[in-house]
Amino acid sequence: MHSPNTPLRVRRNSRNETALEVARRTGSVPNLMAAEMLDRASIDGSCSEDFLKLCGFTQGEILMYGPQARQLAERKANERIAA
């Protein structure tokens, strides 16, 4: 069983799919990417493209979804600060 601290990219569901596999299947890659960006930024202060690649995102996914994921991450970060 995974703890809340288990990185999103390695968590698995009851179908033994990783979070990234589920995101690809359900069209929610930008949301997962944003969550990974926030998680990494909370540790290191930023999130690099290399880190996203280590998470399993392809170069194409980073190019396609990166801007949208960045906006989502910024919005969520601002919501956390305002709360």
Overall description:
- The chain is globular and about 35 Å long.
- It has helices at residues 19-26, 29-44, 49-54, 59-82.
- The model has no long low-confidence stretch (mean pLDDT 89).
- By secondary structure, the chain is mainly alpha-helical.
Write the layout of secondary structure elements.
Layout: H1 19-26, H2 29-44, H3 49-54, H4 59-82
In short:
With 83 residues, the protein is mostly helical. Helix content is 65%, strand content 0%.
List keywords for this structure.
single chain, 83 residues, mainly alpha
Calculate the mean pLDDT score and round it.
Answer: 89
Number of strands: 0
Which percent range fits the helix content?
A: 55-70%
Query: N-to-C SSE series?
Result: HHHH
Separation of termini?
Answer: 30 Å
- Label the structural class: mainly alpha
**Unreliable runs:** none
Supply Rg. 13 Å
3D shape: globular
Q: Describe the biggest sheet?
A: none
Number of helices: 4
Strand content: under 5%
